[in-house]
Amino acid sequence: MENVSLVQMKPGEQGTIVAIQGGYGSRRRAESLGIRVGVSIKKISAQFMRGPIIVQVGNTTIALGFGIAQKIIVEKRQR
């Protein structure tokens, strides 16, 4: 299986979060949104030119900024 940042995933791809890079503030912000290591995540869509990235975590849809999305490392699931 391949580990990539959330930014590198294509819309519709799913995986499991294996790491959240960055400092304490970045990890805390992600965790406050339900984004934690071990959680399943699905990329719904991405905007052109570093715009927000839409993901689904459980039954919740979340828009993430490009910067924090770069710090979320996901182990992609095979289709």
Describe this structure in words.
Helices cover 18% and strands 41% of the residues. It is built from two helices and six strands; from the N terminus they run E-E-H-E-E-E-H-E. Strands 1-6-2-3-4-5 form a six-stranded antiparallel beta sheet. The model has no long low-confidence stretch (mean pLDDT 92).
Assembly classification: single chain
Q: From the alpha-carbon coordinates, what is the Rg to the nearest angstrom? A: 11 Å
First-to-last CA distance: 11 Å
Proportion of beta-strand residues: 35-45%
Question: What is the string of helix and strand elements?
Answer: EEHEEEHE
At the first level of CATH, the class is Mainly Beta
CATH architecture: Roll
Spatial order of the strands forming the largest sheet: 1-6-2-3-4-5
Low-confidence stretches: none
Task: Let me know the largest β-sheet.
Answer: 6 strands, antiparallel
Measured as a percent range, the helix fraction is 10-25%
What is the total number of structural domains? 1
Count of β-strands:
6
CATH topology: SH3 type barrels
**CATH superfamily placement:** Ferrous iron transport protein A (FeoA)
Structural classification: alpha+beta
> Count of helical segments?
2
Mean pLDDT: 92
